């Protein structure tokens, strides 16, 4: 029994923890606490842009960025650094487009974030 | 993204995985590995290194690569253990390069094994004259095994019809200042006996002893922490940086 625990159970448990750590990105990017629903907030930003409400859009995109920073801490061990950088860059670009009230640019960046988010941790 | 913590976590994963996987692969020692095993080891190590530090890429593909290579090595080990023909096919087999004192030049050509390689390996074995060699075999791992001609073999007590005493292997009684009680009990010796032996040699505490070994004849070898040598020989000619 002791041998089974030492040489079979413990190694398999450790490997299972490792696998969970590496494959947890897809699960951990989902909203788990208040203010980390990045995709939900981006939908609100899109809506505000559509309505021309740039003030709300600016506030919501900043909230989305805050949410992204929270999620980033959770998923950093299981996703590519480049994927996170790409989303971060697109979020900053979207903020810039919203600042200058560029509807086309902002929407393009949001779509890009959504696409990158879809592939995050997969 | 905190790169430091990511690399630390990924290194723990790589280290732990490698440790577990190599335990699964068994106890084949470095001296027994063939050239192919050596390359396998390098490939597996390289994947573990990338898993540890290449944070631009997801950890998972490297881990799957590591797992797949380990499983393949495990399969190869099982197959070569079970079928001798497979073992010969995959690992090769020992080849005689000197037979009856004669160098097998055709065999050496096939092996792409130069006469200078043979001489070098013989010298490493302490043989500087080819005349002394009866048989030389290149093993699977590239090492050479030599059988000297009877005239050049060292004399043994048996040749001289002398009686030799059985030596056996020594058993540790004190290791790094700590008493190994299990060994003491197995030899049916008491702690008091050991203390008496130590006192006879001028030691008062077990913690003063670095290593104590008893041989099959009951003779004790004792090495203390504080070496008594007054002028130890220093063989280095490096006197440190000035």
From TrEMBL, chain A:
Keywords, sorted A to Z: Membrane, Transmembrane, Transmembrane helix
Transmembrane region(s): 6-22
InterPro entries cross-referenced by the UniProt entry: DUF4363
Superkingdom to which the source organism belongs: Bacteria
Name under which the protein is recorded: DUF4363 family protein
Origin species: Cytobacillus stercorigallinarum
From TrEMBL, chain B:
Cellular compartment(s): Cell membrane
Transmembrane residue ranges: 6-26, 59-76
Membrane topology: Multi-pass membrane protein
Domain YetF-like N-terminal transmembrane residues, every copy: 7-77
KW Transmembrane (keyword) present: yes
Main location: membrane
Keywords recorded for this protein, A-Z: Cell membrane, Membrane, Transmembrane, Transmembrane helix
Coiled-coil regions listed in the entry: none
Domain YetF C-terminal: from-to ranges: 82-213
Name of a matching Pfam family: DUF421
Family: Belongs to the UPF0702 family.
Protein name: DUF421 domain-containing protein
Source organism of this protein record: Cytobacillus stercorigallinarum
